[in-house]
Specification:
The protein has helices at residues 12-23, 48-56, 60-65, 101-110, 159-164, 226-229, 235-238, 292-313, 317-345; strands at 2-8, 28-33, 44-46, 67-70, 72-76, 83-86, 96-99, 116-119, 121-127, 132-138, 141-152, 168-170, 174-182, 193-198, 201-207, 212-220, 258-261, 265-267, 275-277, 283-284. By secondary structure, it is of the alpha+beta class. It folds into two domains: 2-38 and 102-171 and 267-345, FAD/NAD(P)-binding domain (3-Layer(bba) Sandwich); 174-261, D-Amino Acid Oxidase, Chain A, domain 2 (2-Layer Sandwich). The site of flavin-adenine dinucleotide has 34 residues, from helix 1, strand 3, strand 13 and helix 8.
Length: 346
């Protein structure tokens, strides 16, 4: 099989890139790895500013269909009093979206079903400056796909970059431990998202639906609380000095804790002569920023333009331009992040 572009990974960045390439009539496939494990559902939110980008891509109606509106959030970030950010001060959209990610991914995939290929294992990637050959295995059958360009949209796994020998730079060692709790509406809070910092970390609680709240606690690898955070029965003690976060905990000590990376990192190279990384594969942000999905959409849009230019003009300068832009975004993000954590550390 031969095509112009192979996108590996069918998260938000990979699927939006596919939708945008389809609109540009660029021949491509999205490789969707069939996951063996069920994904743990996280309550994820996108801010009002991202709705402008979605509207410009004609995707706002689709995102809204898989989401509920949210009108702000509260935080206790190294402070004694609760800060409230009300989205009604934002323009033109006075709300953000709390996503049902599973439904959203299904809806996005439905727009490009003809471009999606399911597979079990990525066997190898062979790249030269002329073309890229990808070998995948599906139900014991091996398929070979040859393309002009390959895109890494595999999130923090950076599966394509690993095959290409591209390393990652990590800017901290943050990890996230999440669990599902019975829904509880705090009497002192209006909005469904609340963030609080505490010694050695910070936590967020956000409703997943009318029955479940998702709580995620963040700390650094090597922190004294990390081993205890892995067991829910220790959370009450760890959060005992928090003002409001502790109120969301359930008495039932059987909640399953699921852990994962939540550090800030960047691929040491984001593009090459015929490859690009997008979304978390390019730059992975701290969940505190609430901008991971916005970045995935932004990268997919910028990459679609760079690929169009590459395919039509046969030039690689557009890929360099894409990389420079994403690096600038990340440099600005790092400055903002440093300011935010400085207020906790001093
Ligand atoms: C605890 C936590 C909370 C978060 N909360 C928010 C939030 O509130 N708002 C927000 O905007 N962002 C949030 N984020 C970040 C957000 O989830 C990500 O930034 C976003 O999903 C990145 O999209 P992506 O398409 O780049 O990658 P992903 O969503 O990770 O998608 C990658 C895809 O690649 C596939 N894949 C992986 N490995 C391989 C492989 N080897 N071969 C083939 N396919 C592969 C995966 O199955 C997946 O489908 C949060 C992150 C964390 C960790």
């Amino acid at each position: 099989m031969s095509t112009d572009v192979v996108i590996v990974g069918n998260g938000i960045s990979g699927l939006i890139l596919s939708i945008l390439l389809k609109e540009k009539n660029i021949d491509h496939v999205v490789l969707n790895r069939v996951e063996k494990r069920k994904t743990f559902e996280l309550p994820e939110t996108i801010p009002p500013s991202t709705l402008v980008l979605l509207e410009s891509l004609n995707l706002l109606a689709l995102f809204s269909k898989s989401a509920s509106k949210t009108f702000g959030y509260h935080s206790l970030w190294n402070s004694d009093s609760v800060t409230t950010d009300n989205f009604f001060n934002h323009n033109p959209y006075k709300h953000g979206l709390k996503l049902n990610k599973k439904k959203l991914l299904n809806d996005l995939e439905a727009l490009v079903t003809g471009n999606v290929m399911h597979f079990n294992n990525l066997i190898d990637i062979d790249r030269s400056d002329e073309n890229v050959t990808v070998r995948i295995e599906s139900n014991n059958v091996i398929q070979t796909i040859t393309s002009r360009i390959i895109v890494d949209a595999t999130g923090r796994n950076r599966a394509v970059l690993k095959h290409l020998g591209i390393i990652s730079e990590s800017f901290d060692n943050q990890v996230a431990l999440s669990c599902h709790l019975p829904y509880f509406k705090h009497p002192q809070l209006i909005h469904p998202v609340f963030v609080e910092s505490f010694e050695n970390g910070w936590g967020i609680v956000s409703s997943l639906n009318e029955r479940i709240n998702g709580m995620t606690l963040h700390t650094q690898k090597g922190s004294p609380i990390l081993p205890r955070l892995k067991e829910y029965r220790n959370w009450k003690d760890i959060l005992s000095n928090t003002k409001l976060l502790k109120d969301f905990l359930a008495d039932d000590g059987n909640c399953k804790v699921v852990g994962g990376k939540a550090n800030s990192s960047r691929a040491s190279q984001i593009s090459g002569s015929n490859w690009l990384a997008i979304g978390d594969a390019a730059i992975a942000l701290d969940p505190l920023s609430s901008h991971g999905i916005s970045n995935a959409i932004y990268c997919a849009n910028s990459a679609s333009k760079a690929i169009e230019s590459h395919v039509t003009n046969d030039t690689t300068t557009s890929f360099k331009g894409y990389e420079d832009t994403i690096n600038q975004v990340f440099d600005e993000y790092l400055k903002q992040k440093m300011k935010l954590y400085d207020t906790v550390n001093h």
